[in-house]
């Protein structure tokens, strides 16, 4: 396997000097017990899950079981995805909820087509950029807290749009498991408990800047975050979901609940009106695909999401054979990072709501990819890449999940409140937090991503889909702000160039390049951090870190896994229908099937 086992073992187990600290009461990393042996595959991974009739992979085992229960009870993959997503809004509030947005790619075996849905919300229609700037009191960016970064939450509308087109079971039945868990309680998972504690500390440090009182009552009533294993209940969310299940989509966007949300938001300084909610709608969009190598095609959704950045990376990297080097080599890492930086320079310049600024389709051409590849110096990191002339960043908290049913319907779904748990605001009695996605608007009026009334901001959340030899093959997602496109490509490279299975491709050490031009900065700079920082996990060999630094990259080793995303994937054999699933070791998740 092209020196995979030796290279992958080094990738997973080699620790850079930065993490090998010795103390009197703790042995060095080299002395600690390592991975056990495995009869097949890499020692640092575990087996992928294999099943036949249906499969789900989510960031929480209970949500995965919810999806499987729906499938076993006659629902299809869309029904199961909605049910699991509703459960995750309760169980993983640090990553998602009905106060946020949703994107999905759905493969329908009846039509043989991919369908994309953009469930992202817009800014207030009655507020101009100048009016917003007055509220910002001279700040040069939108804040991550309070009313100003909120955009209309799109998740509930997207659920109903997906269900109307593809669903089989009544929506009330799909929402019933989340309602039951919200009312009766569920135990907090370990990683989610850690994120809740982080969120509580972050909000508490700035609660004089926004109304944190309702969020405290929902999640932190005892003066601290709930811990792993503690039973957590959210009766307010149960009531909200029951109302939605009973009254449908309009319960959220054109009903009594709407009045509660609008009255509260206006009291917090928001310009949203009832009409902003009532006029919201999701959009069905067409995914685009870019061929990589060996018959593999990566498919992503168009802007206002950043999905096409992954396609741009693929079009750059297809111009070189990465498998001539080991996966953990400085050469392979260098080309991956520089391809990311080139693609993201275009993200910062061109990606925005297409209703306001059409996307230049030439950015996705093979010719443009080859042109950008020619800018890579094989020996050195280029200090600054600018956008092309065609003929994001930040740690985001998100959940990715995927469901495939026995008929071959495949759902790749991502959902998020953006930074943290959202902007900190919870309307009284609702049990969910509003997103802070509007933080990603630029305040430069000349920028395609500039704030405007009734506009969708640049979006980081992206589901992915992979075709093989023209056939539907795999759902794929890797959550986490600007990590997502580069994460999609790293996983694809691990599978295609280095022969890893689905689980190994996600467990292998990753990098997250952060910095460079941002879609929130002024159109023509100057940019705060043109080179950016290459963050790597401890599994990247120390020798590779040193070589990359010598090549001009600014490299830092991070050992907690937080900024490297959360991965799920399911592959379906087009001939046998056998399903293979994988989940993320950096989260609490589970892939399971039957």
What would you call the structural class? Answer: alpha+beta
Shape label: globular
Multimer state? single chain
- Count of alpha/pi helices: 18
In which range does the helix fraction lie? 25-40%
For the termini, the CA-CA separation is: 30 Å
What does this structure look like?
- This protein is an alpha+beta fold and 594 residues long.
- It folds into 2 domains: 4-16 and 287-396 and 461-593, 4-Layer Sandwich (Glutamine Phosphoribosylpyrophosphate, subunit 1, domain 1), CATH 3.60.20; 73-100 and 118-278 and 417-440, no CATH class.
- The protein has 18 helices and 19 strands.
- The longest helix has 21 residues, at 330-350.
- The protein is globular.
- The protein starts with a helix and ends with a strand.
- The relative contact order is 0.19.
- Keywords: Acyltransferase, Glutathione biosynthesis, Hydrolase, Signal, Transferase, Zymogen.
- Its EC number is 2.3.2.2, 3.4.19.13.
- Pathway: Sulfur metabolism; glutathione metabolism.
Relevant terms:
single chain, 594 residues, alpha+beta, 2 domains, 7-stranded antiparallel sheet, 16% strand, disordered N terminus, hydrolase, zymogen, acyltransferase, Ntn_hydrolases_N
